[in-house]
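Folding problem:
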Amino acid sequence: MSGPRVMEGWHGVRFRKPVQTTRETIGLIRTVSRGERLEHAGEIYLLPLPDSRGAALRPLVRPDHVPVYVAAMGPQNLRLTGETADGWLGNAFIPEAAEVFLGPLREGAQQAGRTLDQLDLVAPVAVEFHDDQTSADAAARRHADGYAFTIGAMGAGGSGGQNFYNDAFSRLGYGTEVNTVAKLWRAGKHDEARRSVPLDLGRLTNLLGTSDTVADRVSRYHAAGITMMLAKLEGDHEQQLATLQRLVAIAAAA
């Protein structure tokens, strides 16, 4: 699942009842991975299609267990993820505000009779090492600027259209700033919108700075309960490898 602009504009699928759609999708994956015949009478999916030439088929190969990770952001989908998924992809995760996301995840896990420890909690982060604060701040500014498109253009369409990212940013404490960015973007003032994105959205959702700064951030992610960091690297192959080696050493020490 994504938002309405992507689902209806790119995939050609109606965006309706996203939580139920995600729930049924996970159930279908579980059925196939167990090697069972695919029959499903759901609210969203009917398999086989009624009054059709379709048949309830069984997979030729049983894949055993296919881990399901959900990039949930809203409270309802977070609870569903905690209840039914194997892992969570925590876009825009900030350790200092971890409970905004982990609270609903924990509630969902408890509802299913398990604990949050049984989920793989993954935080996607850009990783850049900088030896001075000026360069680190410039990197944070660049990453913050990148959120302007997400904030301004990823709504459901039209002024005030629902934007799940903005809802999440608001729960993280940036509601006023996000509203300003969205208005500027919709008014065509894209450069001003970029400059209006809070620097912390670039700085706190990524690993940017000196080795000591990155080590501190890694420790905060670990303390918050994140079990895996999905590192997004800049540069050519050699530069990426050097950054990754440096990060691995820091993570091992942390």
Notes: Residues 126 and 232 are 4 Å apart (CA to CA).
